[in-house]
Amino acid sequence: MLTKILVGFTILCNFATLLGLWIAYEAAPATLQARAGHVLTVSGAIASAVLYFFVAWLVLRSKSSEQKIEPLPPVESEPPKTLSPEPPKPDTSIRDSDPQLEIKVADLRGKTMSEKSTEQACFDLINRGKKSPAKFACIEDFYVGGYYVAFRNFPPEIRPLGNHDSIFPLYINKPDGKLCDQDIFTLLFWAWEELKNPKLYEYVLPIKATYQDDARDLFETRCELVFYPHEHLNHRLGQKSVTIIETRNQKIRRVAAAITPIDW
Known about the structure:
2 domains; three-stranded antiparallel beta sheet; 4 helices
């Protein structure tokens, strides 16, 4: 609205200036008319100059106000949250005094033994520790293809410094849950054949054994059960074979500490 008023006033001043010039020109012979015309001309020129300066001042002021950035209101900072301390990580390290079971597997085929035909391999548990015996040692059940190999017996406590005991697979179940009359070597060979990769020279399965020490702390040993199918074929054909089955990559760790140590 103010801009429109200023523009209209400017037009009026210019019109007065032109009117004064016209009167001064027409009334040049008359002294009074000439003087009036000169007064109107001077007044219009002065008013126009003042108005121009005022308009320029308003324009400059509006631009400076647009460029001015108002500061943002201060953000109230929240008090720092107190983080609960992280629980300590469990100690999985192994000491020399802890039981340290190493899992070995032995091929018993062709040897004189009284076990059933399904027990053609045994798993030896060797305690490499220097002080504590390994108690309640057991190999966890595992699958070979769709067949289930189960262990249900615990050997007596295994004394340290290289003492050992053996575990035999208690039974092998077929995928339908019925007992299987095949040995573990045949199952491993069938599982390798299902891969349909004759260039694969080994078949690997992870196995794990758990056990406790005198204080009833829980430990575990993990390793890989490695089967060599080509050596197995040589054995079946009566040819000389080297290693058919073995374990490797033994890793031992402490799983859990007993809340209350037990005095056996």
